[in-house]
Amino acid sequence: MTLTDDRPGADELVSSAPVDEPTSPWRLAAVAAGLVVVIAVVSAIHVVQGTAAVGVPELWGWLTGSGSDQSAAVVVESRLPRLAAGLVVGVCLGVAGAAMQSVARNMLASPDTLAVNSGAYLAVTVGATVGVPSAIAGDLVLAFGGGLVAALVVFVLAGTEYGTVRLVLAGTVISLGFTAISTMLIILNPLEAIGLQAWEAGTLSQNGFGTLRLMAPLMVVVVAAVMVFCRRLDLLTLGDDEARSLGVPVRRTQLTVIVLAVLLSAVSVTVAGPIGFIGLVAPALVRLGTSRVRGLHRHRALVPLSGLAGVAIVLLADVVVRAVMGSQRAVQVPTGVATTLLGAVVLVAFALRLRASRLDEGGNALDVRGLGLRHPVVLIAALVALLVAVAGASMLVGDRMFLLGDLVNWVTGRAGPITTNVMDARAPRVLAAVLAGVALAVSGVLIQAVTRNPLADPTLLGVSGGGSVGAVIVVTAVPTASFWAISGASAAGAVVASVIVFGLAARSGFATDRLVLLGVGVAYAATATVTVLIVATDPFNAAKALTWLSGSTYGRAYEHLWPLVVACAVLLPLSWTAARRLDLLSVDEDTPRVLGVNPARARLLLLGSGTLMAAAAVAVIGVVGFVGLVAPHAARALVGRRHRLVLPVAALLGAIVLSLSDLLGRTVVAPTQLSASLLTAAIGTPYFLFLLHRSRRH
User: What CATH class does 25-353 carry?
Assistant: First the structure.
């Protein structure tokens, strides 16, 4: 089995053996027996872990009927349901991942990368926050509906027509959009925030066997239905035309198997929440053995063995979390955190193994003509006027409305006490949105130009995620820390993340495919780390960190803006003076050298500047996505690719987009306030998917 390059229509999942190759029943039996032994050993360790002092002697007494009622209650009501939940979740996600990978012919397809888990999470969150009855069957229906819609959207936009990276990109961006909406709903319902935040990462904790009694039989039925399609899945690996010539109804088979896989994912979400990346890792590990075990590529062996591998990984992750953090503290840490970290490692490993290629091999995707404006100064003046209008509206509109004369009186120092107090509170928020929009937009321009990647974004590449990890560490560990301490930690985290992503990608000349997968992997790892920090702290700090992560200007004062002021004052002039270098670096690798520019030195300086600007924005207003993607693209569409014009236009557009998003967030459902990141996600998600579709090589 090999992971091929990103050629259009190429199978990303290629079997190393013919469909009708003879099987090795003894080797298959040995693999199955080995997995069963691993599961048995891990289960034995799993069942003796816990907060109560119930070990092997007490368990033996319970099994033989000579134990105390207390030990029996602990085992029956707590530990055995948790173990059974691990079995159900592992089987569901392992089988679902194997089925999705085969239908997509893409080894990176899974309930996570196809946005199934985030769709299910959003649907259940909507149900919980708007008052839909939370009965088990209701949760299952919501999770199934949300997951199915998400998977169908991803397949429509990416499917098998695109390659590995496009499928991951489409699913990741849709997940970001869904997660933004889910986070907004959690913030609007603070009493449920802590539980939903922990549930989002996936936890095996159960209150008895009630849920499992309903879900386990459904799991058995659906897995059996998937097994019925094993022969058709074998033939689908040959390609649509070959399978169709052999009598397989390709589209009907694909749709049916996807529905069954999503239903299995919904069962898993209903039992334990969206535990991440089991559907990616378990089938991938099983497929690695296809070259040594004949017949393992056949789905009648691959599907059940993927289920067993999923069980082993889920239980092992739960055991490791409780062994590392201790049984008492591990109660608060979701099992899905460990599996997400494992999935992030797998994504990085695939990125390093993937044959380096670019989304724009047919030509430089950054080479755009723009509208051919004869007087770009007029455009810049118009954007400045629009920014002033948006900022002025932000000062006037809110829970208390003012007139333009009130703003003039406040500026001239003649306003009354009520007007002065409200304006004094709004002004730092407006200025924070403007400066953060400028910083994120310029960061996106620098990163896209240096990496020659039209889809680069500080959030998608993990830079913002690294900044969030550093800042949340300080927020949760030292609640009284100064804003400068938070800003420094955010900058340090962003630098570490960028060193990992850009350092590993530099070895292949910043090949787009590799850079994106590395960034997505680091972003997922950052999300898992932040989840641990949030759920392992007291409720006050958890709410504070979650609100900060949502990307909001709420509560900002002038002293909070200094990181952005310093970053913009120092790095904006530096970026402007480097406009010619950006022009050359965005062309190819040889042109800068010919014209006397040291690419390595210029790239290090400019990537460092972009990283620090993104870190400053994250430190001041939290994580806001897509501004660094939308603003640079819109600027190039208006003025072409010359960075002497792209930089100021993108900066103004970024400030306008983020200021307008903040204004709408404060007014749409006033007096309740929505985070700016929700609005930017609503704008950026469809725009990114449009760019992804447009970047397809014909």
Answer: mainly alpha
